Structure formats: C-alpha cells, structure tokens
Amino acid sequence: MSGEVLSQNEIDALLSAISTGEMDAEELKKEESERKVKVYDFKRALRFSKDHIRSLTRIHENFARLLTTYFSAQLRTYVQISVASTDQIPYEEFIRSIPKMTILNVFEVPPLDGRIIFEINPHIAYAMLDRVLGGQGNSINKVENLTEIETKIMTQLFERAVENLRDAWSTIADIDTVLTDFEVNPQFLQTVSPNETVVVISFNTVIGDTTGMINICIPHVVLEPMIPKLSVRYWMQPNTKPKNVEESEFINKRINKTKLEITAELGKTTISINDLLNMDIGDVIVLDKDTNEALNIKIGESYKFTAQPGVVGKKVAVQILDELKGGGNDE
Fold first, then answer.
1. How many structural domains does the chain have?
2. Helices 50-75 and 148-162: angle between axes, nearest 10 degrees
3. Where is this protein found (predicted)?
4. What does the radius of gyration of the chain's CA atoms come to, in whole angstroms?
5. CB neighbours (10 Å) of residue 164?
6. CB 65 within 8 Å of CB 80
C-alpha cells in the first residue's frame, strides 16, 4: 500500500471485494511484504524533527506572552495572543495559505542569514490601527488602499512588536531585528525558493471583539545554525561553560582585596538598666572571662577563631590560637 489515507467509500469497496472473493487478503499481504516502498514527497522535505518543533513552540509561547503584554500596553484594550500551531511546510504552501491581500512585514535577523516574515491578518491589523488612532477597535478591510500615514503607523507598531523576538530567542541566539520590507500582496514577496522548507508559527489573536491570526514564517536557512540548540539534550544539560582563566584570576584578586571587619571580644556581661543609669567614672564591670582565657575573634557577624591578647611593638595585638569549627553567629 502507498500509505495514503482511504476514504470511507474506498474502505467499504475494499471490504466488499474481499468478502465476494474478487480480492484475496492473503495476496494483499504477500504483495505488501514483497513491496516495501514508502512514498516520499520531495517538495515536503522534513528538515526539523518533532523535538525541534516542540522547542520552537515553547520559545514562541514565550514570544506570544511578550506580544500580549506589548499590544495590551500600546492599544489599551483586552489583548490575548497564544500559539495555535507550529508546522514545517514548503514556502509556496505558506504563501497559498494566507489571504491574497494582507499585512506582511519582512525582517532580517542579523547575524543570522535569511529573512523572516511577520504576517498579520487585515482584520487584526485594522483593529490595532483603529485603537492607535483613538477608535473602539473596529475592523474594516481596505488593505488595497492603505494611505501613507496608515502604512507608517502600522510599520512602527509591528517593528517594535517584533523587537520582542530578541528576548524570546535569547536562549538560542543573540539576534537583532531590522525591518527591510512592508508588503500587502504575498505574490510580490519572494524571500526563498517555493520548495524551501519553512517553519510557520500561527498565533490565535483576540483584540477586543476582533479575532484573527498572526503568522511568523521562518525559513530553514535562518534556523539552520540553531538546530543543535533546539534539541531536548541542549535544554536539559547543565550549564557548564568553561571558565575564562583571566576572568577567574580577576575575581580572585578582587576577593583577596576585600576588607573585612575583625573584632576581638574581651568578654561579655549583663547589667540592669538601673545599673547602667547609675554608672560613674571609676566603676568596674566584671566580664564573663578570666584573664587567662582565650578571646573569641569575630569576622563580620560570625565567630571564626580563638586568640590570646598581646603587644607587637607599641600596638595592642592578638595571636590566633585555633579555628572555631562551624563558627556561626553565636559563641
């Protein structure tokens, strides 16, 4: 069998032929075992695995959230954008699937090669334009007669919207977005060859009472350098970047020069508020340590060493005796 999907009528006819003896099921099995040929459509070459498609979907779900926030702030109305599907298809099929007259923004994404297409359904685009101009968000499709002012407003709105792609792609590539073309007729737009594989991410878009689709078309040439980063293994592996030797030495030098406050405690005691208020010159406060006992050395807020007091030259000093294991904030 060629692997084609049979209609219900074809299935019924096949079962009828087998039941009447016109066809032999055993012969069909034999023919199937002898002829193991799978039909392959070279126009629909699959260059991305399911793993890659899942990763792209996850990345653009984040992009959808960023777009929702951006358009909500710009339009000051209810906006909801979510990923509807992620498919790999020939470029020609993408062009046939979108309206004959629509809003097309073409972007370069340096340093990557190729260009991506940001297609906005006219109903959505005009609802956005109406909101920007102070309207209620009503949609009227007159994409063939865009004025110069309308074109400029839409261009700026969508150019800033696609800037969010940099944040969404930051985990796999450091890119910039540069608007290179604005078009309304897909037939005049030829970014890649008709049979080139492209990934199309479709977004369900709701703006007030208006619904429509936004599509991003990404050619294989753009995504090719990032394919290794789209696998699950890349996302799951620990972040073990090799440390730069010079950077490590610089950090060590800065740490070694850091100044710390060191305190040598002669001892502690507790007195009442009344004793404190009545204290006078010449009074003696008795501490909880004998003169022969080691002092506690405090670094910052933690006790770290024991030491004995002494003198070096004309200066008072302490000599470290031992380290306090597990020194915390308490003695």
1. 3
2. 130
3. Bacterial flagellum basal body; Cell membrane
4. 36
5. 19
6. no
